[in-house]
Design a protein that fits this description.
The chain is mainly β. The protein has 3 domains: about 140 residues, no CATH class; about 170 residues, Tumour Suppressor Smad4 (Sandwich); about 35 residues, no CATH class. The protein is about 5% helix and about 30% strand. Strands 1, 2, 3, 4, 5, 6, 7, 8, 9 and 10 form a 10-stranded antiparallel beta sheet that branches. Helix 1 packs antiparallel against helix 2. The radius of gyration is 24 Å and the shape is globular. About 25% of the residues have low confidence.
Length: about 425
């Protein structure tokens, strides 16, 4: 079964993993949540999960919907006000427990392509990608075949950025200056999903509106060396400088930061800690690293941890412990203050990547991506969503699993680490 899943936020507790999901009307701090999470993560069968849900009797949990989507006994189980919707050959089949004192079980046919679990009230709001763990939801949709689900908020038609009716990905690329043809994509990019036509951000897309603090110059890339606005030499920072030609395994790919970045100790955030010691935002109901449930913990003030890494198709890995500036030959404004950003130089044989192409900035627990008016653009592909082309100088939050393509030459993936 595909692990593809989306959900709509709500007040019921959603618990699950690839083997199955449970949507239940219960207090998130109930000990049953942790028990069910352990069972579902371990691939427990339906009877074991029902025993955990109903261990205090039928009156303790009035409504729930369970989908076991792998193993020998694939089925949905509903009780009370919950409902399941099974999609077969494009038609929806509704399963409810109306008039049933206990619960109703319905097998999932092999030809079913998707199943949805719904709370008692009608689901509203935009859908978002769902990862294994625990969250609050009013509905879930799970793929039963290899056809990816598309969140409803992303189902707007693709719009052309160039005004010609062509998709953004098919728009002509503009070389910044004459150069030989770009080299074939290296094997290290094989993990990137197959290219899809990119669409611009919808008018109601989530965009971080506060103005950036001026870490990057933001000046348009003119393409020619020595032209455009004069920029100062960047302050000491970690710099990744991949050589333009294939390198031997013992070639040094990075140089360490010069000194400690001042002001890092001042990046304080509220956090909760899971039983494995990982830190998460105080609003999280499951650990951002391991998915372990977070219930009833009081938040504490801590120095913000590294929010993850950017794993580049070039093989480099950049930690998200401060601002990151990427480009063919990136520059940073010396007036950026105390923080020394990571400056990442990217190979661009065809000069399609702009000198200073994108900025990745941290704001609390958020990772914000900004295209710095690059010539050939930046395409973002969130998990289980269609590619979207960024508008220049708009900071957009990205979530773990997002893949970012810079001028179709270099890509990186945002990953959460321990």
């Amino acid at each position: 079964m595909s692990s593809d899943a989306v959900y709509t936020p709500g007040s019921w507790v959603a618990i699950g993993a690839e083997a199955g999901w449970l949507l239940v009307d219960i207090d998130p701090s109930d000990a049953m949540v942790l028990k069910c999470w352990s069972l579902l993560r371990g691939g427990a069968e339906i009877d074991d999960i029902l025993d955990a849900v109903l261990q205090r009797g039928l009156r303790a949990v009035s409504s729930f919907a369970l989908a076991r989507v792998s193993g020998e006994r694939r089925a949905v189980v509903v009780r009370g006000a919950a409902e399941a919707v099974i999609t077969i050959a494009g038609a929806d089949q509704h399963v409810s427990a109306v008039g049933v004192a206990t619960w109703r079980e319905y097998p999932l046919p092999d030809e079913a392509s998707a199943v949805a679990l719904r709370a008692g009230t009608a689901a509203g709001g935009a859908e978002a990608a769902l990862s294994p763990g625990v969250t609050l939801a009013s509905s879930l949709r799970l793929a039963l075949q290899d056809t990816p689900l598309t969140p409803s908020a992303a189902e707007t038609p693709a719009q052309a950025l160039n005004g010609s009716g062509a998709s953004a990905a098919s728009a002509p690329r503009q070389a910044e200056q004459p150069a030989p043809p770009a080299e074939p994509e290296p094997d290290s990019m094989s993990w990137v999903a197959a290219a899809k036509p990119a669409r611009p951000l919808a008018d109601d897309a989530q965009v971080y509106r506060p103005p950036p603090p001026g870490v990057a110059s933001g000046a348009p890339d003119t393409g020619a060396e020595g032209t455009g606005a004069q920029q100062s030499t960047p302050p000491p920072a970690t710099v990744w400088s991949p050589p333009p030609d294939p390198v031997s395994p013992d070639t040094t790919m990075s140089q360490p930061a010069v000194g400690e970045a001042p002001g890092q100790a001042g990046n304080m955030v509220q956090a909760v800690r899971c039983q494995h010691g990982h830190l998460s935002p105080p609003t999280a109901v499951s650990c951002r690293v391991c998915g372990f449930p977070l219930m009833g913990q009081a938040p504490v003030m801590v120095t913000r941890p590294t929010l993850g890494v950017l794993r580049l198709s070039t093989g480099d890995v950049v930690p998200l412990d401060r601002t990151v500036i990427m480009g063919r030959n990136p520059r940073v404004d010396q007036s950026s203050g105390g923080e020394h950003p990571h400056v990442v130089r990217l190979p661009s044989p065809g000069h399609d990547i702009s000198r200073t192409h994108v900025e990745i900035r941290l704001d609390g627990w958020h990772v914000l991506l900004t295209d710095l008016n690059s010539v050939n653009g930046t395409v973002v592909t969130p998990p289980w969503q269609e590619p979207q082309r960024l508008r220049p100088h708009e900071a957009v939050p990205i979530e773990p699993g997002t893949v970012v393509s810079l001028a179709d030459e270099v890509t990186f993936r945002y990953e959460v680490t321990g």
